[in-house]
Each structure stands twice: as C-alpha cells, then as structure tokens.
C-alpha cells in the first residue's frame, strides 16, 4: 500500500476534469496532496473554425493553464477526439501516464456516459490502474508501478445514463468552499465556449457546470457538490480514501 498523497484525474477531453472533479481536487490540494490532470484525447475536434492541429495545440495550453491553478502537471495521451479506442496503443499510453504519476487515488469518467470517448476512457483508465505493475508490459524506460490505486468514477454528463435514467452517486463531496477555484479552472478553456455555442447551441458553459453541482449539493444540503462512485471490484482497494481524507465534506449515500 502506497502512503503517498498523489491524486490523478484521468478524464477524456481537456475540460472534462474541470466539469467533474476539479472541486474535489482543489480540496485534496488543500490537504497537501499532489495533483495531476490527464486526458486521453487531445481535443482536436473541439472547434468549428480551427483545424485539428491548431485547436489541439490551443486546448493543450488551456489544459496546462487550468492544471497550474492547482500546481498540477497536465498529461495528454494524444488520442484524437471521437476515435478513442480500446486498443494496444491507447492502453499503453494510459499505463505510461499512471506509471509516470504513481497515483494513490485516481478519478476516471463514468463507465456509462453520453459519448463513447468517455466510456472507453473509463475502461482504459481502469485497465491502466490494474496493470501498471505488470513487468511484462513495457512502456519505454518507465518502470512498473506496483500499486493498485483507489479508483473513483465521476458523474456522467447530466447525471443520467443513455436512457435518461438517473445514475446515483455513492458519495457526494461538498465543494462549496472551492467552487470559485473550479470555475476559474473551467474558464481557462476559453476555446470551448465558442465551440459549444456553435455545435450545441449552448451558451452556458460555466452556468451548466454550476447548475449540475447545485443539483448534487441539494441532496446533502450544501451549495455545490460533486458526485462519485468507487470501483470496488477484485484487487482494487475497498477502503473509502476520499472519506478518510475529506471527512465531513464527504457524504456517503444509501444505494
């Protein structure tokens, strides 16, 4: 069991962490944790005006800027948007990041979400957490990381599955005191406001994030909250590390 305090939010696209886990990351940072943010995809489809190379470079810098607010490095596995696959190159890229970071705690996207990129990233991160310690899997000169970290899944978009049914988190984290930090991080992704307005007809980039967190917060009588479910399958840690670290800010829910 590693006793280091390193948290990795490993989502799909630049700005996914800022929508789903940034508040909890900010709380952990206050507790002395080292934070890392990673994405499988490079965001190369996130523009209606710019080409894939240009927008992916912009989105990388936005990811770096957002992560820097928590003194965190930003890592990108550089898979193309829409084409995130569960294949050997992507699995190795995910394992490499886990081995580099050596996390004690990992956040991944919901296994069920509105977009296949997110769902496949969830699978990739789960596999990387489980297999990072296998010596026969080679990732350049980066050695195996012999520890299976605590794994938590973030809420899906709008908190629902593909049939519109609510996905209930097992735990809500009160992020009220760090909501402004989360908003500041999301606002670093300036390119996405214009993209969402063009593609989705949505001009509520920050507002939609706040509304989601407010809805979660109402369930435990706080202003803003983020929801999580812990992976409790074979070989993964069963203790609730988030609850241990965040105390009264972590509200367990009945399932």
Describe this structure in words.
The protein has 255 residues and is of the alpha/beta class. It has one domain (6-252): Rossmann fold (3-Layer(aba) Sandwich). It has 9 helices and 8 strands. Strands 3-2-1-4-5-7-6-8 form an 8-stranded mixed β-sheet, with helices on both faces. α4 crosses α5 (116-131).
Radius of gyration: 17 Å
CATH architecture: 3-Layer(aba) Sandwich
Question: Uncertain spans, ≥5 residues at pLDDT below 50?
Answer: none
Largest sheet report? 8 strands, mixed
Notable characteristics:
eight-stranded mixed beta sheet, Rossmann fold, alpha/beta, 255 residues, 9 helices
Summarize the structure.
The chain is α/β, with parallel strands linked by helices. It has one domain: Rossmann fold, CATH 3.40.50.10320. Helices cover 40% and strands 16% of the residues.
Please specify the SSE layout and strand pairing.
Layout lengths: L5 E6 L4 H5 L1 H9 L3 E8 L10 H17 L5 E6 L8 H14 L3 E4 L7 H16 L18 E5 L16 E4 L4 H9 L2 H11 L4 H14 L6 E6 L10 H6 L3 E3 L3
Parallel strand pairs: 1-2, 1-4, 2-3, 4-5
Antiparallel strand pairs: 5-7, 6-7, 6-8
């Amino acid at each position: 069991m590693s006793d280091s305090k390193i948290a990795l939010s490993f989502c799909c696209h630049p700005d996914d962490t800022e929508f789903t886990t940034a508040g909890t990351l900010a709380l952990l940072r206050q507790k002395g944790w080292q934070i890392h943010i990673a994405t499988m995809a490079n965001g190369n489809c996130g523009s209606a005006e710019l080409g894939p190379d240009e927008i992916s470079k912009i989105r990388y810098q936005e990811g770096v800027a957002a992560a820097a607010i928590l003194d965190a490095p930003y890592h990108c596995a550089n898979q193309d948007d829409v084409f995130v696959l569960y294949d050997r190159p992507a699995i190795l890229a995910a394992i490499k990041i886990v081995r580099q970071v050596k996390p004690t705690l990992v956040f991944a996207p919901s296994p069920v979400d509105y977009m296949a990129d997110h769902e496949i990233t969830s699978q990739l991160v789960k596999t990387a957490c489980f297999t990072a310690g296998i010596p026969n899997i080679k990732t350049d000169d980066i050695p195996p990381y012999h520890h299976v970290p605590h794994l938590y899944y973030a809420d899906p978009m709008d908190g629902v599955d593909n049939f519109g049914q609510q996905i209930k988190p097992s735990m809500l984290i009160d992020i009220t005191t760090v909501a402004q930090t989360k908003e500041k991080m999301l606002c670093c992704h300036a390119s996405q406001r214009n993209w969402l307005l063009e593609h989705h007809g949505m001009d509520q980039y920050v507002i939609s994030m706040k509304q989601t967190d407010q809805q979660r917060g109402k369930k435990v009588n706080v202003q803003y909250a983020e929801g999580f479910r812990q992976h409790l399958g074979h070989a993964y840690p069963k203790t609730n590390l988030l609850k241990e670290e965040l105390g009264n800010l972590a509200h367990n829910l009945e399932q």
